[in-house]
Design goal:
Elements lengths: L5 H11 L6 E2 L1 H10 L6 H11 L7 E2 H8 L1
Antiparallel strand pairs: 1-2
Length: 70
């Protein structure tokens, strides 16, 4: 995936974070993928979370998301 600006990453994060918790959980990623015709397998989603989740809490914060994509 090509790099995003911080503003683009923020907008995408906000779109995925449907419960507005300030963190993206695996369920939200799965739901986003299904809603956008890009259903990803559990292994790919889990791999993304492992790479982007730098503190290991299985949730992706905005800072982690921006670091990964921007």
């Amino acid at each position: 995936m090509e790099k995003l600006t911080e503003a683009e990453a923020r907008a995408l994060f906000d779109e995925i974070d449907t419960d507005r918790s300030g963190e993206i959980r695996l369920r939200e990623l799965r739901d986003y993928g299904l809603a956008n015709e890009g259903a990803l397998g559990a292994a790919k989603l889990a791999d993304f979370v492992r790479q982007a989740d730098t503190d290991g809490d299985r949730r992706i914060t905005l800072a982690e998301f921006q670091k990964y994509f921007a």
